[in-house]
Design a protein that fits this description.
27% of the residues lie in helices and 23% in strands. It is globular and about 70 Å long. It binds flavin-adenine dinucleotide.
């Protein structure tokens, strides 16, 4: 029986007219070019695809939305999970069962009906499963911790073609590994995740003119030491293009954008942000009460597919030289436009969850990300700017976060820095147990250990 006969969804080869649409995702610079694509409709299709690939020694790539493509498939089998769109909310248990193709916006919508919210991130169009397998740093992270620490169960097809439901009791080692290094161990078909009782937020953004970048970074850095865990914040340093879709006050300007999500009372939120507002005039000030369903407006990430490359660093502290480094290397006069983002960590992110996971660097105080627009894989001048900023903060860098390891930076050595050395050895040993042939290597890969 051919693979197409065993799979309910489409099975596409490069000559098929729908091949390009099926392989294309949000990331435009790195694109999968597999020998076959399986448009999976459920776990049975995933199992058939994995068995087919394993039988022929072909690598398996997985794509839900294409936001996090780390290593593009060149040959092999791509499992596109976008059709796996089931969501079930249990308002009593405060959980959601979410299939592999679902984006956060769907879970946010379904949970909101019960006054609940998922631990989603800045962009509602990111996929739930890819985001969570790499840790998941969300808008409410300082209060609740990493999204991966709020996974109750993982449904997965492993390299041996077995469908498993893995949780803290059943296969605890694999459960530990899946939450932080998950893509290495199979194709996840669904997750059961916690929901939290949040329906509204005090949040939004303060947009300051680029001249204030040193003041904003210095003030935000001091201020983060004073805020409660219920307040999660970040800063984006963004060169806005001079385009009609950009709000007029930001058009063509280099901007410092402070992003806030606070689950306490509105009056307390107003009081907490007063020192930031006092920094100077805002180009735009969107802070106020909002339903969680509008939380995507806080960071206002781009929604149009484009090519991008970037790197990240988990920092012990913000160096006093940061503003100078950012402006010199990635500022408004940089040879290529760069976006730098800082996230305040700590709070629940620094606490170990009751069921341990593979997530590392819980002692980091900030995450720095540097991104630039690129039009394809391979070397280009653009790639060096984020790397130079990462070099400048190296003395304060504890390691990397897997969710933001992209493209050429997705080397074995870089991925190793995402984990504590002991955990990395344990992950490599588990990889040898569950995927000794490294079928699942088109990701932030951890090669199986030799013994
Ligand atoms: C605009 C933007 C905003 C972001 N915001 C945040 C944020 O706030 N917090 C955060 O933590 N991250 C954030 N990210 C990073 C994001 O979480 C990762 O890129 C994540 O991998 C995206 O998952 P995806 O399914 O959307 O993308 P895809 O490219 O479809 O998948 C990414 C990778 O995840 C793995 N994967 C996906 N589905 C499965 C599956 N079913 N089984 C096994 N492996 C799978 C595969 O390795 C795949 O290559 C953001 C990324 C972008 C582009």
């Amino acid at each position: 029986m051919s693979l197409a006969d065993r799979v309910r969804g489409p099975v596409l080869a490069p000559a098929d007219p729908d091949y390009d649409a099926e392989r294309t995702g949000f990331q435009a610079a790195y694109q999968h070019r597999p020998a076959l694509i399986v448009g999976a409709t459920g776990p049975a299709d995933v199992r058939s695809a994995v068995e087919y690939a394993a039988g022929r020694g072909l690598p398996v790539a997985v794509q839900a939305t294409g936001h996090g493509l780390a290593v593009a498939a060149d040959g092999g089998v791509l499992v596109n999970t976008a059709r796996m769109s089931g969501v079930r909310v249990d308002p009593v248990a405060r959980t959601a069962w979410v299939q592999a193709g679902v984006r956060w916006e769907r879970v946010i919508h379904e949970a909101a009906g019960y006054g609940l919210a998922p631990l989603s991130g800045s962009a509602p169009d990111v996929g739930v499963v890819g985001y969570t397998l790499g840790g998941g740093l969300g808008l409410l992270s300082r209060e609740y911790g990493y999204t991966a620490d709020h996974v109750r169960a993982v449904e997965i097809v492993t390299a041996d073609g077995r469908e498993r439901r893995v949780d803290a009791e059943c296969d605890p080692d694999l459960f530990w590994a899946l939450r932080g290094a998950g893509a290495n161990f199979g194709v996840v078909t669904a997750l059961e995740i916690d929901l939290v009782p949040v329906s509204t937020l005090y949040g939004g953004g303060l947009y300051f003119a680029g001249e204030l970048v040193p003041d904003v970074l210095a003030a935000w850095s001091e201020w983060t030491a004073t805020v409660p865990d219920e307040l999660t914040s970040g800063v984006g340093l963004v060169p806005y293009p001079d385009l009609p879709m950009v709000p007029e006050p930001l058009r063509g300007r280099y901007v410092a954008h402070v992003r806030i999500a606070y689950t306490g009372a509105v009056q307390d939120g107003e009081r907490l942000v007063a020192p930031l507002r006092a920094l100077g005039p805002r180009l735009i000030d969107t802070l106020g009460e909002m339903p969680y369903t509008e939380s995507g407006s806080i960071t206002a990430d781009p929604t149009m597919p484009h090519g991008y490359y970037g790197t990240n660093a988990m920092l012990s502290e913000l160096p006093s030289s940061l503003a100078t480094s950012v402006l010199e290397l990635t500022g408004p006069d940089a040879p290529v436009p760069c976006v730098v983002q800082l996230n305040h960590l700590g709070g629940a992110l620094s606490r170990r969850p009751s069921v341990p996971s593979a997530i590392a660097h819980r002692d980091a105080s900030y995450l720095l990300r540097a991104l630039t627009v690129v039009d394809g894989p391979g070397p280009s001048e653009a790639r060096s700017a984020p790397g130079r900023l990462a070099d400048a903060v190296a003395p304060w860098t504890l390691g990397r976060s897997p969710n933001f390891v992209l493209g050429e930076s997705s080397t074995v050595e870089q991925v190793r820095t995402c984990y504590h050395p002991d955990d990395y050895a344990r992950l490599a040993a588990l990889k040898a147990t569950y995927d000794g042939a490294n079928l699942f290597r088109l990701n932030q890969n951890i090669p199986p250990s030799a013994n």
